[in-house]
Amino acid sequence: MTGGNLDEMLDEDPYGRRRRSGTAGRSGRAGRRPERDPEGAYPDPAYPDAGFPDAGYADGRYADADGRYADADGRYADADFDDYAADPGYRDADYDDPDYPDVDRRGSDRRGPGRREAGRRGTDYRDTGYAEDDYPDLAHPDSAYDDDPADDDPADGEWRGSWNDDGEEVDAPRRGGRALPKLVAVLVVVAALLGLGIYGVGKVVGRVSGGSSAADYIGSGDGIAVVQVPDGASAREIAQELHEANVTASVSSFVKAAAANPKSLGIQPGTYRLRNRMSADAALAALLDPASSAPFRFVIKEGMSVQQVLAGLHDRLGTPMEELEAIARNPAQLGVPSYAPTLEGYFFPSTYDLVPGATPVQLMTSFVTRFKQETASLDLEHRAAAQGMTPAKIVTIASIIEKEVANADEGPKVARVIYNRLNDTTGGFRRLDMDSTTRYAQSEYTGPLSRAQLENTSNPYNTRAVAGLPPGAISNPGLWALKSALEPAAGTWLYFVSMPRTKVTQFATTTDEWDTLRAQYHAEGGKE
């Protein structure tokens, strides 16, 4: 039999002799036994299971000892115990092995999952399905289990209990409980998991409602927040800027959103107009939307002149043109290289950030600083010297290339034409004859030039009338034009023309080839 501590007993005496008045301890004198029956066997003690002190549980093996347990259902006939009998609390589907192992069971032969052999006294019952492998501390030990309590005799060493003064068996201490302790353990685990879930939901709700532990906001936000994204900033650094500006509720929320979206790698440095209390996903989408940075973006296009750049700043900042032109007349304050004769050519084409509160001098200085950074990467000064040129002349040639052709792959060939004309020893080209230089001086970039303009020798930029390069650049060249000036293609070309219809530049070496190209140019609608 299974041993147990009978600190709690059923109110009904299993033998029906008298009703107990409460929880029974080890009262009375131990060792008193009941009389044997005519066959010499002790009567069944039928003590209650200590695991269910108040439910009226009686072992189904001894159902005929008490009329409450009907023979029709020997498992658990007591209606008060239906909740436990019908469902032991652990379904077989949840555990790999629902049975007790058969190791060292004395006198018992299992006939299926948890079923006693038919030779037992009383009715059969099914094991409740607690696998000892799963719950080693709560399982019923084999050493404490006896298959037939009727043959328990103190003399054979198998009986571990004693008898009190009323003839009731007082069992040895029980090692472990059955269903109830396991059910309690499972309920504790479930409650803990539910608690964690409620805690997590509480954290998110707290964040949405402005709690100190907020992880993320909901929606597109409200109000206006201006955020600066530094050049080369990581996702975490951007997240920190957003969080400090109260755009996002936490740093981690934006980091996770950026990690989940590969497009986050396309975030550009600059100033952005966002909103307060945006979700991390909404903030990321806004940073990827050019409209968010448009109010603070200023673009210098390749080939723009300084005058065009100043006009753009006037439109964006509202600064008077006279003030901007005065700044441009003093390029030294902007940090231009010492070799630069004018400011023209030293505003590097790029997209710039109009930082709120920045002055025009600071903005124009950033344009020059970018030029110095880019030309340093080209090693402009040393490479110009290697070609027998000054850096200023390289910039001037690049500015002409920028205005003459639109296709970067044609730049090196145009550079070669310029060098061939400058170095012509045949007398055929005493001048560059580039209309782009004349247009710069006239500030006329469309339509045909007049004969008077082309023959004006007082204009130092009129390369049709004045020999050599103009005194300075005629535009702000991009990186490809600077590279073309440093790396001219090999060839003997002296002429080129860009066809008006195809926009393709054709090159020629002889005058006959040139005449053919000119005829094609006019056939496509060329006016010059």
TrEMBL record:
Amino acid composition bias (Basic and acidic residues), ranges on this chain: 61-78, 102-129
Alphabetized HAMAP family for the sequence: MltG (MF_02065)
Region entry Disordered, spans: 1-174
Role: Functions as a peptidoglycan terminase that cleaves nascent peptidoglycan strands endolytically to terminate their elongation.
Protein name in the entry: Endolytic murein transglycosylase
Top enzyme class: lyase
Pfam families according to UniProt: YceG
GO biological process, one term: cell wall organization
Membrane topology qualifier: Single-pass membrane protein
Native organism taxonomy: Bacteria, Bacillati, Actinomycetota, Actinomycetes, Frankiales
Chain intervals with Acidic residues compositional bias: 144-156
Gene Ontology CC: one annotated term: plasma membrane
Catalytic reaction list: a peptidoglycan chain = a peptidoglycan chain with N-acetyl-1,6-anhydromuramyl-[peptide] at the reducing end + a peptidoglycan chain with N-acetylglucosamine at the non-reducing end
Membrane spanning stretches: 183-202
Species whose genome carries this gene: Frankia canadensis
UniProt key word Membrane: yes
Location, primary (coarse class): membrane
